[in-house]
Amino acid sequence: MDLEWMAWTQVTAVFFVTIALILxxxxxxxxxxxxxxxxxxxxxxxxxxxxxxxxxxLAAFIHLGFVAFTDVQTLWTPLAISVLAALLMxxxx
Length: 93
Fold this sequence. Notes:
93 residues, mainly alpha
């Protein structure tokens, strides 16, 4: 399979593998422990999948904000912030 036309790098591959592993883990968690809607600090009742989706959106916005408004060359800082935000969203959202 020739993927030369795409900008595949090791970082890109790790990103997509990580997303796939998260989706597999969420599927297994749903099968083992069915989710129920709950009200956290978000203004709407959410399920585990809703909070995951919102966490991924939040991570994208955090990264875009860092790229747009800072001169930071590495994305370790927004990654750390995104992981922390996702953990808080999944636990308390």
